[in-house]
Amino acid sequence: MTPTLKGVAYVSVWVLLWGTASSLADFVLLERGAYDAGTVAQAITFGSYGIAAVVLAVRLSGRFLTPPD
Q: What is the per-residue DSSP string for 18-62?
């Protein structure tokens, strides 16, 4: 796999993980009445999960994106 394709795949997986995790958390919070749809709290939920995903992706990138020796 070319380095460019590997990088695109890596970012795509993280976007899917972020979207899935934040949507599940959002669903639970909406069902429990913690906030309403379309509020700032909902944006904070998605944003905070996005920040966490970026931090984890950057920290783990060396394990997945370094070329083989």
A: HHHHHHHHHHHHHHTTSS-TTSHHHHHHHHHHHHHHHHHHHHHHH
